[in-house]
Design brief:
mainly beta, 6-stranded antiparallel barrel, 6-stranded mixed β-sheet, 12 strands
Length: about 180
């Protein structure tokens, strides 16, 4: 029997797709979408039940359409709406790093955000991890800004001066 502490929640089934038992699957983090495996554990009535994947195709970088062996109709698939999905932590590469992502971003609370030219944008007041994409809540002189917390935007991190230099896409923040 699988032990709950050995599993990591990686997503959930949202709803059926079509009439042949396919379902829409949403990953909780993009890192989990990159894991290659042939089964998932579904949490059903407090028990972790393994299901084998017949097919999977991505519809975005964090969602896809999954077909599970033995689920062959809309009527069967509808029973799995909002079912949480798990994988053993040893399957997920760098599982501990994945679990610590939220606290990793929280270490930047209090940092000043500057743009690529060195202009102050504001100060990180908090981190909002209530959505799929983690956001920095930044207090500027004019208003509160929400900036995606992603390594793609980071140019430089200066821990001594507590500054985070970002290259933000045009239009993300209004001047």
């Amino acid at each position: 029997m699988i032990n709950e502490k050995d599993l990591i929640e990686i997503g959930k089934i949202l709803k059926p797709h079509g009439v042949k038992g396919e379902m829409i699957f949403l990953f909780t983090q993009i890192n989990f979408a990159e894991t290659d495996n042939n089964f998932y554990f579904f949490l059903l009535d407090g028990t972790y039940v393994p299901f084998f994947i017949e097919s999977f195709r991505f519809i975005s970088n964090v969602s896809g359409i999954i077909k599970i062996e033995g689920i062959n109709s809309l009527e069967e698939a509808i029973n799995y709406n909002d079912t949480l999905i798990y994988l053993p932590s040893d399957i997920i590469q760098d599982a501990q790093e994945v679990l610590d992502i939220e606290s990793e971003w929280e270490r930047f609370i209090g940092f000043s955000i500057i743009d690529e030219s060195g202009k102050l944008i504001g100060v990180i007041d908090s981190v909002d991890s209530s959505t799929m994409n983690v956001l920095f809540v930044v207090l500027s002189k004019e208003k509160e800004l929400l900036i995606p917390a992603t390594q793609d935007f980071i140019i430089d991190i200066n821990s001594k001066t507590k500054q985070l230099q970002l290259n933000l896409p045009e239009g993300l923040i209004e001047n």
